[in-house]
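Field log, afternoon session.

UNIT: design team B
ACTIVITY: writing a sequence onto a fixed backbone
BACKBONE:
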């Protein structure tokens, strides 16, 4: 039998600028959301997605043609693109939003990513989208599934292992599910969302950080993609949870039972 022809993969990795995972979240004085005047970094699940794209190229060698990252956000969001480029991505797209604009919702992001993928067809088809399963700021966990639905592609969510056969144009993905794992085989093109067990992202070396400054970041707007990011939901009020009250000590079981009865608990 003849070996299958090698298909060169073009990988797209969406990334998001979010409040750094180590920052203690506080509600802003207006109670309209959280205080954003704190350290930001790449969403941790998206870091895993970038790392997996780079590892795929390391495993598949010349079979991966390009790794392109994309973000949607204010001018400062270009920071996460530079990080991804330093990790090993080849080029980037920044869909720039005004500084004061609200964060786009999952459907708007999915529509923008679909528009970018359709736009990329002019040069080369995107074969694989690898993205975080959720962002740690809104925890929506919807964008990957919505994107696959809009494109009519297969999807493999919560991936803990990804193997791609470029000749057969398929991928075998191990998924994290309740109570264990599930292995599925999917045809390319495909949307994969990453779970924590997939890999450990690398630190960008200083030489790669310097090289990333020379890599291309293409600037686009919502109008360029014919996408409307107007929110469909309105946040009425955000408040912190009530402060926890410390517990009390009892001297005996009888006193404990009495306290429970006072609190309204009864024996079954």
């Amino acid at each position: 039998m003849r070996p299958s022809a090698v298909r060169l993969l073009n990988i797209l990795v969406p990334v998001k600028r979010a409040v750094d995972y180590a920052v203690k979240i506080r509600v802003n004085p207006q109670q309209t959301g959280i205080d954003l005047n704190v350290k930001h970094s790449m969403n941790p699940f998206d870091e895993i997605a970038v790392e997996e794209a780079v590892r795929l190229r390391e495993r598949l060698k010349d079979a991966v043609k390009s790794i392109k990252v994309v973000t949607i956000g204010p001018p400062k969001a270009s920071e996460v693109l530079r990080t991804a480029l330093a990790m090993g991505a080849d080029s980037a797209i920044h869909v720039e939003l005004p500084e004061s604009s609200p964060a786009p919702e999952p459907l708007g992001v999915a529509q923008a990513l679909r528009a970018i993928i359709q736009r990329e067809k002019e040069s080369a088809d995107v074969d694989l989208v690898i993205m975080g399963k959720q962002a740690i700021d809104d925890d929506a966990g919807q964008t990957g599934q919505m994107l696959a639905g809009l494109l009519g592609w297969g999807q493999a969510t919560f991936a803990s292992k990804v193997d791609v056969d470029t000749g057969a144009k398929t991928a075998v993905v191990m998924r994290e599910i309740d109570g264990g794992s599930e292995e599925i085989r999917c045809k390319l093109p495909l949307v994969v969302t990453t779970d924590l067990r997939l890999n450990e992202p690398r630190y960008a070396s200083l030489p790669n950080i310097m090289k990333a400054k020379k890599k291309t970041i293409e600037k686009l707007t919502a109008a360029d993609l014919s996408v409307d990011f107007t929110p469909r939901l309105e946040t009425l009020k955000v408040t912190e949870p009530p402060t926890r009250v410390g517990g009390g000590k009892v001297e005996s079981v009888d006193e404990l039972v009495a306290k429970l009865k006072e609190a309204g608990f009864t024996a079954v």
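LOG NOTE: Residues 77 and 145 are 23 Å apart (CA to CA).
NEXT ACTIVITY: expression trials, pending approval
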